[in-house]
């Protein structure tokens, strides 16, 4: 199981993969099903890809589950999504803990329903010892809001005379973000063909590689993930320099 994909390429696999799980609604509409059926099917992909990413040796997997802008959707869809989240957490937490997967959340949990907030805390506690992979779930996450909060915190420290404005650097800003405990994503995948970030990890994506996959999230499987890994391995990450790896 724990074998790297056959890439014929010795370049490093991504340590942190972040996925914008898009296209659930279109998947369902194409089949004349209600949109929520697509979200439900999307949970299967979450399970499959989490397990598979771990088997491939990915250390951090971030999944964009609900954005700060997704509140704009009809109430029934938002409630449906939250119900599915409850269902997923109830069924999956123990398994993740057993498999050594640590779960962490990013985003503003304070706007989530109370029972979901409790589930989030419980899940983080229950899986805290997991050391094979960290599954980061972006729930009510918006990168601009995250950057605004970070800026406010730093500004408050300056106003309080705790530090000079000039002392603010990259590291300090990164340390104020929801993602302070995690490395930046090496690879960002978006399913369903859209080619945009939709307010996801704007700061953290400075040097990420991007892959836009023409498949809806419910159809994204282990093979699709391996294809992404292969494409990633062919990229030459230069970080502004002239280094040619491999
Ligand atoms: C992604 O699928 C899931 C969430 C945003 C919660 P969408 O619901 O955005 O599906 P499309 O893009 O409408 O097909
Ligand atoms: C981004 O998808 C958010 C998630 C996948 C959770 P959206 O479907 O909300 O993005 P837009 O509206 O197409 O940009
Ligand atoms: Mg969408």
Task: Explain how this protein is built.
- The structure is a single chain.
- The protein has 7 helices and 6 strands; from the N terminus they run E-H-H-E-H-E-H-E-H-H-E-E-H.
- The chain has a single domain (16-233), classed as Decaprenyl diphosphate synthase-like (Undecaprenyl pyrophosphate synthetase), CATH 3.40.1180.10.
- A 6-stranded parallel β-sheet has the order 3-4-2-1-5-6, with helices on both faces.
- It starts with 15 loop residues before the first strand and ends in a 12-residue tail after the last helix.
- Helix 1 (24-30) packs across helix 2 (35-55), helix 2 runs parallel beside helix 3 (75-98) and helix 3 (75-98) runs parallel beside helix 4 (114-126).
- It is of the alpha/beta class.
- Residues 20-22, 64-67, 70, 194, 196, 198 line the site of one 3-methylbut-3-enyl trihydrogen diphosphate.
- One 3-methylbut-3-enyl trihydrogen diphosphate binds at residues 20-22, 64-67, 70, 194, 196, 198.
């Amino acid at each position: 199981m724990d074998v790297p994909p056959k890439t014929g390429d010795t370049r490093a696999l991504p340590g942190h993969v972040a996925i914008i799980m898009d296209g659930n609604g279109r998947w369902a509409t194409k089949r004349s099903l209600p949109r929520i059926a697509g979200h439900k099917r999307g949970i299967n992909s979450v399970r499959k890809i989490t397990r598979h990413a771990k088997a491939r040796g990915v250390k951090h997997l971030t999944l964009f589950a609900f954005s700060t802008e997704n509140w704009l959707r009809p109430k029934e869809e938002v409630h449906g999504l939250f119900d599915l989240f409850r269902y997923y957490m109830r069924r999956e937490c123990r398994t993740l803990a057993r498999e050594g997967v640590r779960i962490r959340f990013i985003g503003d949990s304070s706007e989530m329903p109370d029972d979901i907030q409790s589930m989030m805390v419980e899940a983080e506690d229950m899986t805290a010892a997991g050391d094979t992979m960290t599954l980061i779930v972006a729930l009510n996450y918006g990168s601009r809001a995250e950057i605004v909060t970070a800026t406010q915190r730093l500004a408050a420290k300056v106003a309080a005379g705790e530090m000079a404005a000039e002392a603010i650097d990259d590291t300090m800003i990164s340390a104020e973000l929801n993602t302070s405990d995690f490395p930046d994503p090496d690879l960002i995948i978006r399913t369903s063909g859209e080619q945009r970030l939709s307010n996801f990890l704007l700061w953290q994506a400075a040097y990420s590689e991007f892959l836009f996959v023409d498949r809806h999230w419910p159809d994204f499987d282990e093979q699709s993930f391996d294809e992404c890994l292969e494409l990633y391995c062919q990229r030459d990450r230069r970080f502004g320099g002239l280094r040619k790896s491999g």
